[in-house]
Structure formats: C-alpha cells, structure tokens
Amino acid sequence: MTDWERFLDTFFNAKVIAKYWPDILYGMVVTIELAVLVVVTGLASGLVLALLRALGIRPFNWLLIFVVDVLRALPPLVIIVLIYFGLPSVDIVPSGFVSTWMALSLVLMAFAEEIFWAGITAVPRGQWEAARSTGLSFSQTLLGVVLPQALRLTIPPLTSRTIAITKGTALGSVVAVSEILGQASSAVSNSYNPSPLMLGAAAYLVLFIPVVVAGRWVETRFAWKK
Length: 226
Description:
This protein is mainly alpha-helical. It has a domain at 25-180: MetI-like (MetI-like fold, Orthogonal Bundle), CATH 1.10.3720. It is built from nine helices and no strands. The chain has helices at residues 3-11, 14-53, 58-73, 76-86, 96-122, 125-133, 138-167, 180-191, 195-222. The longest helix has 40 residues, at 14-53. The chain is elongated, with a radius of gyration of 22 Å.
C-alpha cells in the first residue's frame, strides 16, 4: 500500500463513511435545530434587554450590565457545564440539548444586548427630540423612530456574532448532544478510524459556508455608505 492509499484509507475510508453517514446526517439535523433555537431566543432576548435598558432604571441597568458582562467574559463551554451539572443540584435536570441551547442563547443574548444598545445610543439625540416634539410618547419614539435606525446599524456586527455563536453548537458534544461533532466522535470511537471526522467536517462546510456567504452579503447590503 502506497502512502497515498494509506492516507485515503485512514481519513477517507469508503466503508466507514458508508456505514456512518446516516449518523452524521442526523447530527446535521440536530445542529440546525439547535442553531435556529439559539439564534431566535438569543437575539430576541437581547433586543428585549436593550429596550428595557433604554428605560433608564438605574438599579435594573446596573444588574443588567453586571450579568451581561459576566456572560460575555465566561467561555460558552463553562456555561454549558455549569447548567448541565449545576442545575441538578436544585432538582432541575436539563438534557444536554437544553443545556447547550440555554448556554449559547445566554451568550448570544449578552452580546446582542450590547450591540443593540450601541445601535440605540448611536442614533443622534436630535432624532429623540424631534420625535418627542411632535407629541410622540417615549415608547413610541423608541419603537417607531429610534429602533428602526438602530437596527440598521446593528445588522453587520449581529451577523458576525450570530455566525460565530452558531458554530459553537459543536460544544454540545461535551454533554452528549448528538450534533455533528458528537456523532462523528462516537463513530470514530466505534470504527477506530478518523474518517467520520472528515465526514463531519464536510457537513460543517455544507451547513456554514452558505451562512458565511449570506452573512457577508448582509453586512455589505446594510453597511452605511460613506
């Protein structure tokens, strides 16, 4: 057997790939479900926190800033482990899927809140004053005048952060989530061959290259023109 044949047999073994590709396909479905849940809940909760922060309630804002800073500082893997192994001590037993979803959603929420807040504060003060002078209430001004402008400012950084956090779904393999990496790792252990990892890598490329390309288009489309 030549070196090239040995390389192919090690990393692209056709028999191993044929046996375990259904498992990787199942892992892709789990990864998609997890990523969608994380993006929806993380962005929605981040926007809600930013709007609440705009109310200017100081004790609440101090607590919010502290929590957000802690979540941004902690590695997502640490938060996953804390939820998965910590909550059972108070009689709450989340599954690995739920733990990963909660952890990544919290991390995305924290970053999204800061991005949304930066967008809100970037809107010129004159926009607030002009809207209020027409008789609009604070909430009407915030939601109808300021927020639409702020959202346009936040789209490029939110896109990058969202792509980064969705790739973190691979961390779910640590708590036995059957996503792509979890399935590939299990297949490697059973087959004693790294070919399933190559199959898993291909699955990630299939999933995330379109997401990255779409994100680049969104960033370009909504960037402020000089």
